């Protein structure tokens, strides 16, 4: 219970900070909207072609957009040396990680809520497969992005070019998850194949990487 | 500037009363080719107040960060209350010259956040409520302005309230009087003197280590003075007390 209390303390603090500044959400929202509009104009796809490419555009837009939120989240902790004060408290390091990852999940999900209807309009989409499965793919895919992103953003905290470091490390690590997200979304939109295998793969990826991130975060936080 | 204590700790950590609060044995901290601290050996008794003096860049802050366990020594061993610094979380509080507060939150929100992180097991881990801690340092707890809009002096006092509310047995203060006017600095010295008298749950006494350039201000508080020059401890003098 104590662990949960610490996770919720970090989560509440991150939500409050974002509510006051709106740095992460505004940046993500404008970036992802631009990607959606620009791709829509550049390709002017038919409904059938849209179903083939929409999954890729959606997840790549979210991946790039989430980078801004992930960097912002840790920048706040480094400013004024707040991270040092957190390190001296008895609260476990993994609670800080989990609180921040959950906050990032909420921020990216909020952007998805705005983005999804616009996506349907701009790309003239309606799912030919089992549309309800998007309610599985979206949270699983978003968690895969934010969990690894939060971890690797912390890993790059003490590097000089941390804004550059994060995509360089995160993108290759996220490739299997990205593949699963895109394939599952495309399968749902086109109805040509079963997305179940990709959803299972995404779930397995999340279990493995969440466990590794939680176990290793203490080392990352206290590294010099 | 007195703070009424309301102890809410259910269980205090066990500690050896015989072990010194701080023990450094041949400690060096080397960054690349630069030795910030060289072969430091020092023992400070529990309940003491030590003032570390030295010029800018002498290694005072590095010494404090080593004691806090925020950095590890390149050579030598650091021991707090007979154990590793990393094992003493919750017993040690550190105030750096950076405020260690979120600019976007008010003083009260910052303090409540850190008080919440002090909670371990059945214990709330804080000796005073955030409101009492803020009043003790002379700040209005109902101030809703974010800390980012505070003056440097107000931030410094909020930062002191943050460390005091955590009920530390070892208090490490890096330049606590910088950015404060003479009157506020004197009040801070009084508050620290008062803090030393607060009882520690489970016995023991409170230890303070502070770095400062204002030696005259901290002198009444300090039992001993450590002088650091170019990373080396060149003197450790104990204040003579009347028999």
TrEMBL record, chain A:
Family: Belongs to the CcmB/CycW/HelB family.
Source species: Granulicella rosea
Highest rank taxon of the organism: Bacteria
Classification via InterPro entries: Cyt_c_biogenesis_CcmB (IPR003544), Cyt_c_CcmB_bac (IPR026031)
Primary residence: membrane
Cellular-component GO terms for this entry: plasma membrane
Job description of the protein: Required for the export of heme to the periplasm for the biogenesis of c-type cytochromes.
Cellular location(s): Cell inner membrane
Keywords assigned by UniProt, alphabetized: Cell inner membrane, Cell membrane, Cytochrome c-type biogenesis, Membrane, Transmembrane, Transmembrane helix, Transport
Regions that span the bilayer: 24-43, 49-70, 102-125, 131-157, 164-182, 202-221
Matching PANTHER family: CYTOCHROME C BIOGENESIS B-RELATED, HEME EXPORTER PROTEIN B
One function term, GO molecular function aspect: heme transmembrane transporter activity
Name this polypeptide is given: Heme exporter protein B
Gene Ontology BP terms: cytochrome c biosynthetic process; cytochrome complex assembly
Membrane topology: Multi-pass membrane protein
Automatic annotation (TrEMBL), chain B:
Protein name, entry field: ABC-type multidrug transport system, ATPase component
Domain of life according to the entry: Bacteria
UniProt keywords, alphabetically: ATP-binding, Nucleotide-binding, Transport
Record-linked Pfam families: ABC_tran
MF annotations from Gene Ontology: ATP binding; ATP hydrolysis activity
Species lineage: Bacteria, Pseudomonadati, Acidobacteriota, Terriglobia, Terriglobales
Occurrences of domain ABC transporter (ranges): 22-243
